[in-house]
Automatic annotation (TrEMBL):
Record-linked Pfam families: F420_oxidored
Annotated Pyrroline-5-carboxylate reductase catalytic N-terminal domain residues: 4-91
Record InterPro entries: NAD(P)-bd_dom_sf (IPR036291), P5C_Rdtase_cat_N (IPR028939), STEAP_metalloreductase (IPR051267)
Keyword tags: Oxidoreductase
Protein name listed in UniProt: Pyrroline-5-carboxylate reductase catalytic N-terminal domain-containing protein
Molecular function in Gene Ontology: oxidoreductase activity
Length: 189
């Protein structure tokens, strides 16, 4: 049985914890307010859940899910997460229904396999986006960001993604081209 630390107990964290428990995994919940504030959440999840500090949960887990707001990342204990398999739920929205694909990226093949197995055990399909350096392909502003796509469509969206810096350069180049005399381009009005 996989033990998963769920750091963050809002909508995403608790939703993930419910799915993980339903799939037969053990869950250790943690938040910034301490384990004593999680009694109701633990009770609602049943006997396969418990609460601990972030450090304690991470130390006991096979996988760690971070489901905290972006502004909270700086307060997470980095040393407790070092060497752990960490999943970042920062781009996920739970408003969709149905079976959806979730892209993953990482440099450790065994870690990606463990994350993919977990994602698939709770009813999603993992799509390998490649090395961690390719994670930008499914961040905000890209075709693969927060859209319910089939596997083939998601792979296509990942390939069509452009980096933010490339978007800015392309936009600047287009703007300058429109201003060049003799370019044949119409100036935007």
């Amino acid at each position: 049985m996989t033990v998963i630390a769920v750091v963050g107990t809002g909508r995403v964290g608790l939703g993930f914890a419910e799915a993980a428990v339903a799939a037969g995994h053990r869950v250790v919940l943690a938040n910034s307010r301490g384990p004593e504030t999680l009694a109701e959440a633990v009770d609602s999840l049943g006997g396969s859940a418990e609460a601990d500090t972030v450090e304690g949960a991470a130390a006991r887990a096979d996988l760690v899910l971070l489901a905290v707001p972006l502004h909270s990342y700086g307060s997470l204990p980095a040393s407790a997460l070092e060497g752990r398999i960490v999943m970042d739920a920062g781009n996920y929205y739970t408003d969709w229904s149905g079976h959806i694909q979730l892209p993953i990226a990482g440099d450790d093949e065994a870690a990606k396999k463990a994350v993919a197995e977990l994602i698939e055990s709770i009813g999603f399909d993992a799509v390998d986006a490649g090395a961690l350096r390719e994670g930008w392909r499914f961040q905000r502003g890209t075709p693969a960001y927060v859209v319910p796509l089939g596997t083939a469509e998601l792979v296509d969206a990942l390939q069509r993604a452009r980096r933010y810096r490339d978007m800015a350069i392309d936009d600047l180049t287009t703007e300058r081209t429109h201003r060049l005399p003799g370019s044949g381009a119409q100036r935007p009005d």
